[in-house]
Write a structure and sequence with these properties.
heterodimer; A: alpha/beta; Rossmann fold; five-stranded parallel sheet; four-stranded antiparallel sheet; B: mainly alpha; Alpha-Beta Plaits; 2 domains; 4 strands; 6% strand
């Protein structure tokens, strides 16, 4: 589903010589991964690359779509609609209400009006945002905006979920809620990456961790020039715990 | 894409509306100027050669009868009795201050035999005097030709200026709108939206504003034409108008058709131009 081979990722020169690291990674459907590392270790750069916000140098496949320099804009748009990215500073349409902001990905995917309304109400309730549904994003606290960003990223049940640090560290309740929701989606076949400085000890999901700056294991004779094998086996799918389109 | 259309901000709507309104108004004037000038000077030439004055020595009850008789005998000659103020003004143009009481003056546009008119006037008032139009056309002709040429040059200059200013204004508005919505565009791209959707919304909205501004400009042209025609009447030595829409006869139907189509034309052109500009800007930035 995701294959990165010798991807150049920027990092602080204090952490890695030359300020660039080469990363190879392979993730299948139903797999999730912590990406841990200190500040400026390339965590957000990795998420940005997977979210197609940065140019990809080197052979790569995202959501089974090989990326190349002649990557058509239409394919890029289609892939982005399948990626839910909760970044550090989520942007909103300031003139739209929170509910309309959350509903935007569904509208861009040409869902029907009734379906958009039902899904939006369900996910706003799931993230405890129903009281702020008609509020403008600029009037809300940062935590509420992060909640809304989570709701917007997950409303389409994306195939690839990327979560940057603030959503995981700002509010423990939000983290628990977000991880439990994503866990359900991962069990249904989504792939998730969580970027954080240090993995919270009390959290069990996900189990696997990728540490940045990346120090690849020394290859044995037979493994030279090969892409690392999948890190995880797919998990058993489970039903999501909130009422939504796929319930 | 109703949500997306609501999400966008429009920082330059009023500037565009007023700008297009003014440009349309100027364009309408520049289009009408050569026709209007040509018709007005033509009328001036005609009037100047047929402007006859009947002077009566004093006020008496026969004046009304004479006025009616002239109107009845020579229909369409626009017989007008001048007020005392107009008489004083006319006489002041003619000579030194008038000695004694002011005479009564009746004006008409008459191209027939002066002797016939004199006989008719003197039948009602023996002292009536008929003053034929002066032979001024020879002096007037080159002057009027210059006026026509100047009107054409002014219209051309105004049209050229508008052709330069209008695209610049639209470019400025499209750029301002795109800059004001840079965050929305970024978010749209990150959510997998098509930036062309934004271009369509920009183009549609700015085209509508341009069309509306143009309509207002055309609407403003009508009172301007009325005011100009009224202001020119005394210069053309014509009686005041009773029909305010008289100016419509000065301009040809093809010009009225062009003016009626102008808002639609401006709307289509501005929509297309804004769409192209947005596409070009997007291609440059990406």
């Amino acid at each position: 589903m995701i294959t990165l081979h010798n991807l150049s990722l920027p990092a602080s020169p204090a952490l890695i010589q030359g300020g660039m690291q080469s990363l190879s990674l392979q993730l299948q459907r139903g797999e999730a991964l912590w990406v841990v590392g200190p500040a400026e270790s390339g965590k957000t750069a990795l998420l940005d690359t997977l979210a197609l916000r940065r140019p990809v140098a080197g052979p790569a496949t995202i959501l089974n779509e090989p990326l190349n320099p002649r990557f058509p804009a239409r394919t890029r748009q289609r892939l982005r609609q399948r990626i839910g990215y909760i970044d550090a500073n989520p942007l909103f349409m300031d003139r739209l209400s929170l509910a309309d902001n959350v509903a935007l990905p569904l509208e861009l995917a040409h869902f029907r009006h009734a379906e958009i309304q039902r899904e939006t109400e369900a996910i706003l309730q799931w993230f405890g945002l129903q009281d702020h549904a008609q509020a403008l994003p600029t009037t809300l606290s940062h935590t509420t905006r992060l909640r809304a960003a989570c709701a917007r990223a997950l409303i389409t049940h994306p195939s690839l979920i990327l979560v940057d640090e603030p959503a995981l560290t700002l509010c423990p309740e939000l983290r628990e809620h977000l991880l439990s929701t994503i866990k359900d989606l991962v069990q249904n076949g989504a792939t998730a990456l969580f970027a954080i400085r240090t993995r919270p000890p009390e959290v069990s999901f996900p189990e696997a961790t990728l540490t940045l700056p990346y120090n690849p294991p020394a290859p044995t004779e037979g493994e030279k020039e090969e892409i690392p094998p999948s890190l995880f086996a797919p998990l058993t799918p489970m039903a999501p715990t909130y009422e939504g389109r796929f319930s | 894409m109703t949500r997306l259309a609501r999400a966008l901000s429009w920082p330059s709507s009023w500037s565009l509306l007023i700008g297009v309104c003014l440009l349309t108004w100027l364009l309408g004037l520049s289009l009408a100027l050569p026709y209007g000038t040509s018709r007005a000077t033509h009328q001036w030439e005609e009037q100047a050669t047929s402007y006859v004055v009947i002077a009566l020595p004093q006020q008496n009850d026969k004046i009304d009868a004479l006025q009616h008789a002239v109107s009845a005998t020579f229909p369409g000659t626009e017989v007008t009795r001048l007020s005392e103020q107009e008489v004083a003004q006319t006489l002041a143009h003619w000579s030194t201050p008038w000695p004694g009481p002011l005479p009564t003056l009746i004006t008409l546009h008459y191209r027939g035999d002066i002797a016939t008119l004199t006989t008719l006037a003197q039948r009602y008032e023996p002292d009536a005097m008929v003053i034929p139009p002066p032979h001024q056309l020879e002096k007037l002709a080159p002057f009027l030709a210059n006026i026509r040429q100047a009107a054409c040059h002014i219209a051309l200059a105004m049209g050229g200026a508008i052709a330069l200013i209008a695209p610049a204004l639209l470019y400025l508005m499209a750029r301002t709108t795109a800059l004001a919505n840079a965050q929305q565009r970024l978010l749209l791209l990150s959510l997998g939206g098509n930036p062309t959707t934004l271009h369509h919304i920009f183009a549609r909205r700015l085209a509508l504003i341009s069309g509306l501004g143009s309509l207002i400009g055309i609407a403003l042209l009508l009172p301007t034409f009325i005011a100009l025609t009224r202001a020119l009447r005394p210069l053309l030595r014509l009686p005041p108008l009773t029909d305010p829409l008289h100016f419509t006869t000065l301009l040809p139907p093809i010009l009225w058709g062009s003016l009626a189509l102008l808002p639609v034309l401006i709307m289509c052109l501005s929509g297309g131009l804004v769409y192209l500009l947005c596409r070009m800007q997007d291609r440059t930035t990406s």
